[in-house]
Structures are given as C-alpha cells and as structure tokens.
Amino acid sequence: MLGSVIERDYDPLAYRTLCLSAYYRTPLNFAWDSLDSAETALQRLYTAAYKWGRPGAIDMAYRNRFLAEINDDLNLPRAMAVTWELVKSDLSSSTKKATLLEFDRVLYEF
Questions:
Q1: What is the number of domains present in the chain?
Q2: CA 100 → CA 30, 33, 42, 57, distances in Å?
C-alpha cells in the first residue's frame, strides 16, 4: 500500500495522517480522496508550524489533554482533535509550536 502512495507522489506522512483519523479497532476504508484530505491537513500543520517561528514553552494543559486521549485506549482521532484545537487556539505562536512538536513526538516520529 505504501508503495502505491509513494508512486503517486504522496508524502508517506500523509498516509500516516489518514491512519490517525481512524480508531485502531475499526477498519480504515481507504480512498484516494481521503488521502488527498489527509495530505492537505498535513500541509496545513507544516505551514502553521513554520509560520510560528521558534518554539517556546509547552502548554501543559493541552499536553495533558492530548496524552489523556492517547492513554484512553489509543484514541488517536480524539488526540488529533486536540491537535487541531491547539492549532486554532489563542495561545502564543511559540507555545503552540512547542506543544505541537511535543505531540509530533508521539504522532509522527515513531
């Protein structure tokens, strides 16, 4: 599957983003349109993080909410919802970037 994704010139992390949208105990219904949406979402995260500049201090409230979702039977769709709440929040750019990078350690680095 991943070979087909790469052959069509998608970022492999877009496929991972798509997988994060589904609860692990349910089947993922793959569609190229869904992968397009996941790639758009990933690009929005990249763009936001780039615009935010240097990271500052992690917001512990968001971190704790994110980890609570991860620790609730690996509820990745809810963890991603917390991620998007962070992106849209009124926190400072440096705090959002530091917190997003903390989330990234769980979502994309492993």
A1: 1
A2: 26, 26, 12, 11
**What is the residue type of 57?**
A
Of the candidates 61, 63, 60, 52, the one whose C-alpha atom is nearest the C-alpha of residue 92 is 52
The range of the structural domain enclosing residue 67 comes to 2-107
For the domain that residue 21 is a member of, what is the CATH number? 1.10.730.10
Residue-wise pLDDT for 53-86, tens only, equals 999 999 999 999 999 999 999 999 999 999 999 9
Contact 45, 81 (CB under 8 A): no
> What is the C-alpha to C-alpha distance for residues 51 and 37, in angstroms, rounded to an integer?
21
- CA distances (Å), 109 to each of 16, 18, 29, 90, 103, in order? 11, 15, 24, 26, 10
pTM of the model: 0.87
Structure tokens at 7: 């052959």
